[in-house]
């Protein structure tokens, strides 16, 4: 699943960012913004026209990105049972490394 | 105070660097107050802000405010400047003695990564943990000594928007220079390091509660409510400019009248008195009167910018901008162009895509700038009845809104045409910063800078033009004993008559043609020029008020509307063209702007004139 397919107000865990071109400055910027493996991300809003762009939250930071940009972010498979969303602290944001290994 | 003795050491040079929205500018304003100098970096058009601070111990510190950036991998000219100055490779800008890295404590996860990237440079560095007051409200606690120990870099806390909120930073600048940190081994995962630091140094003290940002964004980013909020804010902005400014404008007008009358009694009747009273005081006076409107507009835009709302407006409008081939990023430069196209065009530097940037620059002059307000205000009050519509809105405000809308819609069409063959991807990707109350001190410093720019324009260009206009319309004087208006004999009258055949198709009489000439240098002068041409305003500066009955008696509705349409499009401002040249380094783009804007102005006026004539007979 990709980030742009995540439903409104839902949380997912980032698997990785897939660059579209080499080099891909947008993918690089996404990583600098903290779209990195293991990071929980929540969909905050979808734009008024055609669900584009979308706003997401990582930790305490909110970002606006277009569908095409969000499609670069590959989400973890939910069937791999990540830690319960409620257990994630949006501020401290991190899942402990152990729970990542368990997954 | 600025006198330096031979024993005084060389001033310390520090650079403020940090992510966008870390509160760096407020901190800079707090540290340097009005001892600032705004210029450009050599060779590029990125704004260079530098200021002076004198510490309690008497140390002179020069502070450079670098453009905000998320990383040293620059994606825009602004970010490239920050990177090069930090690396110490910027030509003509010696490497700073120390980097002061400002971090928003409320956004530590994002900002720490950049801090670690900076730390890898191995240069003397100081970290300022800004907005520490807001962290407590987030229910978090940061262990500052621990963070300092882990980073191996001194960390001080600050509250950029509070008085004396930067005291600890000033104290640190007085102390000894921090040692350069030792970089982490090459290839360290900075994100992993951020997580480690967060786990060690940040602790939750209270249960998480829904944050203000989350609650506000539910409304502000909502597809329906968000749109209504955006439209409401823009609409209030226009109403405010038109009605709230009035009492202040009346006050200014009265003082200018009194000044004119007072000076008139001091000087003997003759050329000199006419020059001072009719040329200087009346000319500059008619324009100074608009200062309140311009300040309210700037105050509104600056407050929206500082509160964190502007990127949200860009979010709401991104799809519409995309329809015109642009991204929401172009929204902010375009909105600033409502105040003045010059800062608007300058702020296009934040647009990474060169083509997006070029198109934004080309359409920025179509955003109705504040200098057009005097002309709109005059014509609207002369030709549109002041009526309340739907018991809520003033008809004047509605017409003004329509004029603004015409500019915006045309801009979207032009952008669409310019971008029709373009298939590249245009990134939007941006941070939606946390909401915050704009700091009063910072707002007033920024507002004062705008006021100064406006007043210095009044003092230079506008004053000069007023005097030239006065001379053109006073000389040569009509021969003794002639009847009819004196202006007919003057140079201005002759130039106007020469231009008139071309402009008669769009309903302009020769008086308008005369007023268009000085309007080329500064749009707002057109009002005082009309006053001079119609020989009103002698010894009084409320020319606009006197012009209203005159114009409504002499011009047809079609002529007035045609002139309004002309003003929506015409590129009548040399400073805009000059800034386009400076920002793009190309004369070609300047000529394209001139021709397409004049073309549109003529076409729009032609249509407006003939359609209005058709309906009014």
Automatic annotation (TrEMBL), chain A:
**What InterPro entries does the entry give?**
Fe-transptr_FeoA-like, FeoA, FeoA_core_dom, Transcriptional_repressor_C
Reply yes or no: does the keyword Membrane apply. no
Alphabetized UniProt keyword annotations: Iron
Domain of life, source organism:
Bacteria
Segment Disordered: which positions? 74-103
**Domain Ferrous iron transporter FeoA-like, first and last residues per copy:** 1-77
Under SMART domains, the record lists: FeoA
Q: What is this protein called?
A: FeoA family protein
Native organism is Acetobacter farinalis
Automatic annotation (TrEMBL), chain B:
Q: Which UniProt keywords apply?
A: Cell membrane, GTP-binding, Ion transport, Iron, Iron transport, Membrane, Nucleotide-binding, Transmembrane, Transmembrane helix, Transport
Record-annotated FeoB-type G domain positions: 11-179
Location within or outside the cell: Cell inner membrane; Cell membrane
Query: What residues form the membrane-spanning segments?
Result: 224-245, 280-303, 323-346, 358-383, 395-418, 454-472, 543-569, 589-611
Question: Which InterPro entries does this entry report, sorted A to Z?
Answer: Fe2_transport_prot-B (IPR003373), Fe2_transport_prot_B_C (IPR011640), FeoB_GTPase (IPR050860), G_FEOB_dom (IPR030389), Gate_dom (IPR011642), GTP-bd (IPR006073), P-loop_NTPase (IPR027417)
How does the UniProt record describe the way this protein sits in the membrane?
Multi-pass membrane protein
Q: What is its main location?
A: membrane
Does the record bear Membrane in its keywords? yes
* UniProt-listed CDD domains: FeoB
Record Pfam families: FeoB_C, FeoB_N, Gate
Similarity comment: Belongs to the TRAFAC class TrmE-Era-EngA-EngB-Septin-like GTPase superfamily. FeoB GTPase (TC 9.A.8) family.
What this chain does, per the entry, is described as: Probable transporter of a GTP-driven Fe(2+) uptake system.
* Name the record gives this protein: Ferrous iron transport protein B
Give the originating organism. Acetobacter farinalis
Primary gene name: feoB
């Amino acid at each position: 699943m990709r980030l742009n397919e995540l439903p409104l107000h839902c949380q997912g865990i980032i698997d990785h960012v897939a660059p579209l071109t080499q080099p891909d400055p947008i993918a690089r910027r996404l990583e600098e913004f903290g779209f990195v493996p293991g990071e929980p991300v929540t969909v905050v809003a979808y734009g008024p026209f055609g669900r584009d762009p979308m706003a997401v939250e990582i930790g305490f930071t909110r970002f606006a990105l277009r569908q095409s940009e969000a499609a670069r972010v590959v989400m973890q498979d939910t069937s791999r049972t990540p830690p319960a969303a409620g257990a994630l602290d949006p501020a401290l944001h991190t899942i402990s490394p152990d729970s990542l290994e368990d997954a | 105070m600025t006198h330096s003795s031979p024993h005084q050491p060389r001033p310390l040079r520090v650079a403020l660097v940090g992510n966008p929205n870390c509160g760096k500018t407020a901190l800079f304003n707090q540290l340097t107050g009005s001892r600032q100098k705004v210029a450009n970096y050599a060779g590029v058009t990125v704004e260079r802000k530098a200021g002076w601070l004198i510490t309690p111990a008497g140390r002179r510190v020069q502070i450079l405010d670098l453009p905000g950036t998320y990383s040293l991998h620059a994606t825009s000219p602004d970010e490239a400047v920050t990177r090069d100055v930090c690396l110490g490779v910027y030509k003509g800008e010696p490497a700073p003695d120390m980097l002061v890295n400002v971090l928003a404590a409320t956004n530590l996860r994002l900002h720490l990564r950049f801090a670690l990237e900076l730390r890898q440079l191995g240069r003397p560095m100081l970290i300022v943990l800004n907005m520490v007051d807001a962290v407590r409200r987030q229910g978090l606690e940061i262990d500052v000594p621990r963070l300092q120990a882990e980073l191996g870099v001194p960390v001080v806390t600050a509250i950029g928007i509070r008085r004396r909120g930067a005291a600890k930073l000033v104290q640190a600048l007085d102390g000894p220079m921090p040692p350069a940190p030792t970089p982490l081994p090459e290839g360290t995962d900075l994100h992993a390091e951020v997580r480690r630091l967060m786990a060690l140094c940040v602790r939750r003290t209270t249960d998480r509660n829904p944050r203000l940002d989350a609650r506000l964004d539910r409304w502000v980013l909502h597809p329906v409510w968000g749109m209504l909020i955006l439209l409401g804010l823009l609409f209030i902005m226009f109403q405010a400019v038109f009605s709230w400014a009035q009492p202040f404008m009346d006050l200014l007008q009265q003082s200018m009248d009194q000044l004119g009358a007072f000076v008139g009694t001091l000087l003997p009747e003759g050329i000199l008195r006419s020059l001072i009273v009719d040329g200087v005081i009346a000319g500059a006076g008619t324009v100074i009167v608009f200062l309140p409107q311009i300040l309210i507009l700037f105050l509104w835009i600056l407050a929206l910018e500082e509160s964190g709302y502007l990127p949200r407006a860009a979010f709401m409008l991104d799809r519409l901008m995309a329809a015109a081939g642009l991204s929401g990023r172009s929204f902010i430069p375009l909105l600033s162009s409502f105040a003045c196209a010059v800062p608007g065009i300058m702020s296009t530097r934040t647009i990474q895509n060169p083509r997006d940037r070029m198109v934004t620059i080309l359409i920025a002059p179509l955003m109705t700038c504040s200098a057009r307000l005097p002309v709109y205000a005059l014509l609207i009050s002369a030709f549109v009845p002041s009526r309340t519509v739907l018991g809520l809105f003033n008809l004047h405000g509605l017409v003004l809104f329509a004029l603004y809308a015409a500019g915006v819609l045309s801009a979207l069409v032009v952008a669409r045409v310019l971008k029709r063959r373009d298939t590249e991807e245009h990134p939007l990707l941006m941070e939606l910063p946390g909401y915050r109350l704009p700091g009063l001190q910072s707002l007033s410093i920024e507002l004062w800078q705008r006021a100064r720019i406006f007043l210095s324009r009044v003092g230079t260009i506008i004053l000069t033009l007023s005097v030239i206009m006065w001379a053109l319309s006073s000389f040569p004087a009509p021969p003794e004993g002639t009847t009819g208006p004196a202006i007919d004999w003057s140079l201005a009258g002759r130039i106007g008559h020469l231009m008139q055949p071309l402009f008669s198709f769009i309903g302009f009489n020769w008086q308008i043609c005369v007023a268009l000439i000085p309007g080329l240098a500064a749009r707002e002068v057109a009002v005082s020029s009309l006053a001079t041409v119609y020989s009103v305003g002698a010894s009084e500066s409320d020319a606009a008020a006197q012009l209203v009955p005159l114009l409504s008696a002499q011009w047809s509705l079609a002529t007035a509307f045609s002139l309004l349409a002309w003003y929506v499009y015409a590129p009548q401002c040399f400073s805009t063209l000059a800034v386009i040249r400076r920002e793009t380094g190309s004369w070609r783009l300047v000529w394209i702007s001139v021709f397409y804007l004049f073309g549109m102005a003529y076409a729009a006026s032609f249509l407006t004139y003939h359609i209005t004539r058709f309906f009014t007979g």
